């Protein structure tokens, strides 16, 4: 079962500090992947700020011409310190944390870039999603453009019109998430579809998730479980979180606890916990509980993540 563990807006959880860093919407916040000495935030005020955790003051500020929708630093990179940034401009910008400047531009999209994600397997591989209905995979060491553009029809001309060729969705693509091993990429679009792709080939696996309601005009921040034999996707859906089996497409359950729309989900692989944040100003923590003994799996499949079901 998945049950609500904690609501982080109650007397049990005390707010340590509140500081106002931006005059407008903050879209993305990320810890520095290698320690907690700093974190990075980006906003509609056209900036991305690198914060010193101890002083809570910006150590670096990157200025952009357009609103910033998303950013991400690679969780595994050891040979570079690049931050990928998606803005209202179609060009994806790569900012170097060491030099404090934008050192590279990735060109190919024709619309706003709503989501960027680095591969958890290869430190130079980046996925980007845009309002132009496309998803591109890049090797940022190459200067010749993207590796490939994902095609929902897998190159079959009989199933696609010329306008739909090389599109991942029939609408804005506003969500990206790699599986923990980096072998697959999940995408979401405003066509109310979620798709699973092989990252090595760009092939659409054609897993059917049914209708995945998605009305977000900005990035959809969903999550995938890690460290489990079975992988699950946690997708905001109104005031609930929809839980899908990644490789079968089954809608396993809907997690209900928020009083307003859910904005984001994040999975903690070490604690096997899910965190969801909503417009009701609550952050909910969800944890799995074991099945009752009478419905345990057989001995050869008794693994932690196989012995949970969802409420």
TrEMBL record:
UniProtKB keywords: DNA damage, DNA repair, Repeat, Signal, WD repeat
Annotated GO CC locations: Cul4A-RING E3 ubiquitin ligase complex; nucleotide-excision repair complex
Superkingdom of origin: Eukaryota
PANTHER family in the record: DNA EXCISION REPAIR PROTEIN ERCC-8
UniProt-recorded name of the protein: Excision repair cross-complementation group 8
InterPro entries registered for this protein in UniProt: Rad28/ERCC8/Ckn1/ATCSA-1, WD40/YVTN_repeat-like_dom_sf, WD40_PAC1, WD40_repeat_CS, WD40_repeat_dom_sf, WD40_rpt
Gene: ERCC8
Signal peptide from the UniProt entry: 1-28
Pfam name, any one: WD40
Gene Ontology BP term (one): transcription-coupled nucleotide-excision repair
Organism field: Scleropages formosus
Stretches forming WD repeats: 26-61, 106-141, 166-207, 255-286
